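Long-time lurker, first post. I've been practising inverse folding by hand and with some scripts of my own, and I keep getting stuck on stretches where the structure tokens seem ambiguous. Below is the full token string for one chain I'm working on. Before anyone asks, I'm not after the true native sequence, just a reasonable design that respects the backbone. If someone could post their per-position residues I'd love to compare against what I wrote down in my notebook.
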């Protein structure tokens, strides 16, 4: 073993997560309607290549997701792993608004078929609340808030 000091990278945060979808345009529309993610302006050119990523970003144009389209030759569909959940942090207000809107989205939960208020897909983690659901391509998603007291009051817990 060398006696020289090894440099440790200081990560700023997660830049984006890759997910596979059947139709990038349809998936981008779904993510915009449900989570408010839009095509990342500064990386839009990457989506011009059908095998490249369609980068979705937050409202301030920060990358969040990279949508890759399944292709039986170039990008065959990978089987879903045991736990490939992508968690998004939101404020307590956004979480409560999402709970109100869940029936309109027709979301499928990860533990139940239809996501509705009060299902097992809304989980109390004692210091945070999370909602688990799937996108149309069965990618597992989670919304989490650390505004515990506000959500507990809303859910009468």
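-- Answer (accepted) --
I ran through it position by position. Result:
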């Amino acid at each position: 073993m060398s006696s020289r000091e090894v440099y440790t990278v200081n990560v700023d945060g997660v830049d984006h997560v890759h997910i596979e979808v059947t139709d990038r345009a349809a998936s981008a529309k779904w993510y915009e309607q449900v989570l408010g993610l839009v095509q990342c302006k500064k990386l839009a050119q990457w989506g011009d290549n059908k095998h490249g990523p369609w980068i979705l970003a937050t409202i301030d144009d920060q990358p969040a997701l990279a949508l890759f389209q399944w292709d039986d030759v170039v990008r065959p569909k990978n089987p879903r792993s045991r736990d490939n959940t992508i968690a998004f942090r939101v404020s307590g207000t956004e979480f409560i608004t999402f709970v109100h809107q869940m029936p309109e989205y027709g979301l499928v939960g990860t533990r139940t078929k239809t996501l509705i208020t009060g299902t097992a897909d809304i989980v109390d983690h004692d210091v945070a609340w999370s909602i688990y659901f799937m996108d149309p391509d069965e990618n597992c998603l989670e919304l989490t808030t650390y505004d515990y007291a506000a959500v507990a009051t809303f859910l009468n817990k």
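A couple of notes from the structure itself: The mean pLDDT is 84. The beta strands are 17-21, 38-39, 54-57, 63-69, 86-89, 108-109, 122-124, 129-134, 140-145. Happy to go over any region you disagree with.
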